[in-house]
Amino acid sequence: MSTCAATNKDGTPCSNSTAAGSAYCHVHQNAGADTEADEHGFGVMLASALAVILVTHFLLQFILGA
Ligand SMILES: [Zn+2]
User: Fold this and answer.
1) Which tens digits make up the pLDDT trace of 12-38?
2) SS3 track for 33-45
3) Half-sphere exposure of 50 (CA within 13 A, CB side)
4) Ligand 1: distance of its center to the CA of 18 in Å?
5) What pLDDT is recorded for position 27?
6) What residues have their beta carbon closer than 5 A to ion ligand 1?
7) Distances (CA, A) of 38 to 35, 42, 43, 44, 46
8) For residues 20 and 33, what is the distance between their CA atoms, to the nearest angstrom?
């Protein structure tokens, strides 16, 4: 067991022991996973929104321009 590699919100290094098989304690292990999931979800949402806008744009162009 070594010390957690994460940093606390106040800027001090986390002094918790690492969870088994991880560089982070159980607190920061879960926090990191949550952050990654949120960023991924936001990217997918943004890509979906752009796709809908593009499809709508080309459909309108096709209908109005035909
Ligand atoms: Zn930690």
Assistant:
1) 999 999 988 889 998 888 765 555 555
2) HHHHHHHHHHHHH
3) 6
4) 7
5) 87
6) 4, 6, 14, 16, 25, 28
7) 5, 6, 9, 10, 12
8) 16
* Res 11 pLDDT > 70: yes
The tokens describing 31, both together, are 């926090």
45: its two tokens: 């949402």
Output the CA 44–ligand 1 centroid distance in Å.
29
Question: How high is the pLDDT of residue 49?
Answer: 95
The answer on pLDDT for 1 being more than 60 is yes
Sign of CA dihedral 38, 42, 43, 47: positive
Answer for the pair 16, 25: CB distance below 8 angstroms, yes or no: yes
